[in-house]
Amino acid sequence: MNIIFLSSSNGILCSIGLCRKRHYLALLLGVGLLAGVFGYGGYRLAKNDATPDLPTEVAEWKQALHDQREELEQLKQESQATIEALSSRLGLMQAHVNRIDALGQKLIQMAKIDKGEFDFSRMPAVGGPESQPQGDLSESELRAAIDRLSASLEDRENQLTVLESLLMNRNLQAEVQPRGRPIVTGWLSSYYGMRTHPISGKREMHKGIDFASKLGKPVVAVAKGVVTFAGEKSGYGKVVDIKHGNGITTRYAHNSKLLVSVGDTVEKGFQIAEVGTSGRSTGPHVHFEVLKNGRQVNPIKFIRASR
User: Fold this and answer.
1) Contact 276, 237 (CB under 8 A)
2) Fold of 187-304
3) Which tens digits make up the pLDDT trace of 244-269?
4) How far is it, in rounded angstroms, from Cα 97 to Cα 149?
5) In whole angstroms, what is the distance from residue 177 CA to residue 246 CA?
6) Taking residues 276-285, what's their average pLDDT?
7) pTM for the complete prediction?
8) CB 251 within 8 A of CB 209
9) Which residues have a Cβ under 8 Å from the Cβ of 217 and sit 6 or more positions away?
10) Which of 134, 138, 141, 142 has the smallest number of CB atoms closer than 10 Å to its CB?
């Protein structure tokens, strides 16, 4: 068997004779070697084509992971900011609650309410039947609930402040309202109104009430006020005048000794003088007057008001 080759350059015919077994073996080896070369080249080519895709996918995965980490960090920061904002609001609300508790305790004392009825140091008693849970509140719902509660607390605090002011005014009025007797020991010896004067024997208007007592015994203020006069007055002897507000002044006359000066602030029951017999007097006593806008009025209602 001969294999003929035709040269493309000069048209010369060539032939290879395969008349022997070794010729066939050499041909098979050549073909096999050629097939191996082509096969290995295809494998390398396929490997080179597939390899470039792998780094691209890895890069995409790394970028996605980086993006997720940044998103997670942002969520953490937003959550922390939300927690700090809510904590700040809760702190302000707690301050309102503390002020309301303090106001409540003060009002209880001012109004003389039983502490067992309103105890601001304990949580109020509450209760109710068990019900199905309605689910957790969202952040917006929680913020809205906190806003409503904060507004309610501020409103209650304002109301309690107004109530405190009213109670303080009421208590102040009670403190400056004359009540009781101007002496510690003694008795009522002469009423307000027309009487026969014990010295002149003539009928005349007695513009106060007399309280007989022992010489040197305490003379006390019947209400809180400011001393506007402390000295001698014709017919009155040694006198103390105390102004209490609302146009009311009390007068204490015929004292033996004065213990206060003009401008002094005195409380109810504070000793201002000692019982005496100065001025026009038949014996140790206190001449007590109540003046309303400069005019004497009957003190008996103020004296009886303490009973």
Assistant:
1) yes
2) Glucose Permease (Domain IIA) (2.70.70)
3) 988 899 999 999 999 999 999 999 99
4) 11
5) 9
6) 92
7) 0.51
8) no
9) 183, 184, 185, 186, 274, 275, 284
10) 134
